[in-house]
Amino acid sequence: MSPGPTGKLSQVAVIGFIAGFVALLMVGGGGPAYRLKLVDLDDAFALLRWGAWTGLGAIFIALVGVWITRPGARRRGFVLTLAGFVIGAVAFGIPFAMLQNARRLPPIHDITTDTENPPRFVAIIPLRKGSPNPVEYQGGNISQQQRMAYPDIQPVTIAELPDAAFKRALNAARDLGWQIVAAMPEERRIEATDTTIWFGFKDDIVVRVTPSDGGSRIDVRSVSRLGEGDLGKNAARIRAYLQRLQQ
């Protein structure tokens, strides 16, 4: 008769759980380690890669462990094995999803609601000193790729006069937690910086309010300081902002 739950704890279950936990620490810790300047960006991304591979290894170990510790078997640790499998899957899944997103989206980092005459930065220019990404809009192929990938990124027109629309635009930026760098009511221009939660990347935003048919047109531009592609972050930021404006 099998010992069932009174049997010895499976080492495979323990190893699988530990591997999954370590993988999750590597994946989750890459961003904070970069923000704290403990590692450079290449090393942070290396942590992501190795964490993903470790997570994949934990999945395979857990699959073996499930068989060894299945109900009625001689070894204990079925729940521990399942936990290792889930943690390993999360550790592998996050970087894998990021990779798939990077392949699906164009390698651009400058998104705007007006590709013909994008809002221009003024106050933020000194803050971008040393940034590898230029503050000037490159247009051409960039705007073509944006239109293909993000056709919904369009200006918003609201039935408020420009001065009132400017106040609404400024409040929306504050509601989203952006750091306001400049708010120029006479020019109806807002410049701000948003910091990503995980890696602490800084992206800059400029909002422009102009009169339009008795109301106001609001254009937004969001640009990353670092990285060729943004994994859709700037487009998502603009969507969230425009949605906030219209609430």
Please give the oligomerization state of what you see. Answer: single chain
Low-confidence spans: none
Helix percentage: 40-55%
User: Count the strands?
Assistant: 8
What is the makeup of the main sheet?
Answer: 6 strands, antiparallel
Can you tell me the overall shape? elongated
State the separation between the terminal residues, measured CA to CA: 66 Å
List keywords for this structure.
single chain, 247 residues, alpha+beta, six-stranded antiparallel β-sheet, two-stranded parallel sheet, elongated
Please describe what this structure looks like:
With 247 residues, the chain is an alpha+beta fold. It is built from six helices and eight strands. It is elongated and about 80 Å long. The mean pLDDT is 94.
Summary?
The chain contains 6 helices and 8 strands; from the N terminus they run βααβαβαβαββββα. By secondary structure, it is of the alpha+beta class.
Topology (SSEs and partners):
Layout: E1 8-9, H1 11-35, H2 41-68, E2 75-76, H3 78-104, E3 110-112, H4 141-149, E4 156-158, H5 162-175, E5 179-184, E6 189-195, E7 202-212, E8 215-224, H6 233-245
Parallel strand pairs: 1-2
Antiparallel strand pairs: 3-8, 4-8, 5-6, 6-7, 7-8
